[in-house]
From TrEMBL:
Keywords: Iron, Metal-binding, Pyridoxal phosphate, Signal, Thiamine biosynthesis, Transferase. Pathway: Cofactor biosynthesis; thiamine diphosphate biosynthesis. This is Thiamine pyrimidine synthase. It comes from Cryobacterium levicorallinum. It catalyses: N(6)-(pyridoxal phosphate)-L-lysyl-[4-amino-5-hydroxymethyl-2-methylpyrimidine phosphate synthase] + L-histidyl-[4-amino-5-hydroxymethyl-2-methylpyrimidine phosphate synthase] + 2 Fe(3+) + 4 H2O = L-lysyl-[4-amino-5-hydroxymethyl-2-methylpyrimidine phosphate synthase] + (2S)-2-amino-5-hydroxy-4-oxopentanoyl-[4-amino-5-hydroxymethyl-2-methylpyrimidine phosphate synthase] + 4-amino-2-methyl-5-(phosphooxymethyl)pyrimidine + 3-oxopropanoate + 2 Fe(2+) + 2 H(+).
Length: 363
């Protein structure tokens, strides 16, 4: 059983780390702008024959099926075909925002709440340029014979285990659904869901792609209350880059997007193969099981990565409505930020305009 991180196990620590990183990064970017660049501008070089050297992607979590599209982009040669000599995929847990701002990686894969928090609090020069998950995987997990929390009314009188890193998101969930905190009990817990499985609590702040699968594989009949369906929709598995990269490494980022879209197209069309690749090739050091990784791959492929919007506009799409919903979720946690401060979907629009064949991901 792999304990799940919260919406950002590193969220509060990230704010502290990023304060110094942001200041250093902003100074470095200013000096670069003043001095100019000695390297040729990559703009206009993307496409056949383009060469971008090496690239790097910071994962927020360990190398499990969460990143199966990246593995397939690597395994099937899509990164190479896009013009990369190699793409280093760096496992977490990690602060993807700090890694991106510091210039240690080109792209970080995180979520709109963590990245939005850093932008709102610290003015971090970051943007989200796409999202793998159209629906975030956070859920209140219970068991059919203990808790059975299938709707908001079922929360009354229940005891819910909530990790410290998830507390602000849990409080936002209660506020946005007008639930009196005194009508239930919030119990501080760690990440191992054994207290839920043993019947010590009624519900558990969880991931659809982690603890819920653990319960299912143990035959415990899980019941989920997904936050995305009950007042807190926001995008996750978001691709975060610096403002400077959008301006000066635009074609490189677009090439990465092309390869990523191709990799995720393969992954969602054969989740079983993606899970096997995860266990055998990319995550053998993490004590993964083919049963759990296959279920995660299936859940991602049918319920999180694809939507009516992606069917119409392609993978990684973030519609105007979903952007605003993410902003509204941040507002519910007490943060003020605009969609234009958090998102830049112009690169993705250019990718699909230049590669319309990528729109047809469903085979």
């Amino acid at each position: 059983m792999t304990p799940s991180r919260g919406f950002s196990t590193h969220n509060r620590a990230v704010v502290r780390v990023v304060k110094g990183v942001v200041a250093a990064a902003v100074l470095a970017l200013a000096l670069t702008a003043c001095a100019g660049s000695d390297t040729p501008d990559a703009a206009g070089t993307a496409g056949e024959g383009a060469s971008f050297g090496d690239a790097s992607i910071q994962f927020s979590w360990i190398k499990n099926a969460e990143f199966m599209g990246e593995y397939l982009a690597d395994q099937n040669g899509y990164f190479a075909e896009a013009g990369f000599d190699a793409v280093d995929m760096i496992e977490g847990p990690a602060s993807i925002e700090a890694a991106v701002i510091s210039g240690n990686v080109d792209v970080g894969i995180g979520n709109a709440i963590s990245t939005g928090t850093i932008i709102a609090n610290e003015g971090a020069p970051l943007k989200i340029i796409g999202a793998t998950y159209q629906k975030n995987p956070f859920t209140i997990l219970s068991l059919a014979d203990k808790g059975n929390i299938a709707g908001l009314d079922d929360l009354k009188g229940k005891t819910i285990g909530v990790q410290a890193s998830n507390l602000s998101l849990w409080e936002a969930f209660l506020e946005i659904n007008d639930i009196d905190e005194d009508s239930l009990t919030t119990l501080p817990v760690q990440y191992d869901p054994t207290p839920l499985f043993n019947g010590e609590v009624d519900g558990w702040f969880s991931y659809l792609t982690n603890e819920s699968i653990d319960a299912e594989l143990l035959g415990l009949d899980p019941v989920n209350l997904p936050l995305a369906d009950f007042g807190l929709p926001f995008v996750a598995e978001t691709l975060t880059v610096t403002d400077d990269a959008i301006k000066n490494d635009r074609e490189k980022l677009k090439a990465l997007l092309v390869a990523e879209i191709r990799g995720w197209t393969d992954a969602i069309n054969d989740p079983a193969a993606a899970a096997k690749l995860t266990v055998d090739t990319y995550g053998p050091t993490f004590d993964l099981t083919i049963e759990k990784e296959t279920r995660q791959a299936e859940i991602q492929s049918t319920g999180l990565v694809v939507s009516a919007d992606t069917l119409a506009n392609g993978l990684f799409t973030i519609s105007s409505e979903l952007q605003q919903q993410s902003i509204d979720t941040l507002e519910a946690t007490g943060l003020t930020i605009t969609a234009s401060q958090l998102f830049d979907l112009t690169l993705l629009a250019e990718v699909y305009a230049e590669n319309p064949d990528l729109l047809a991901y469903s085979k």
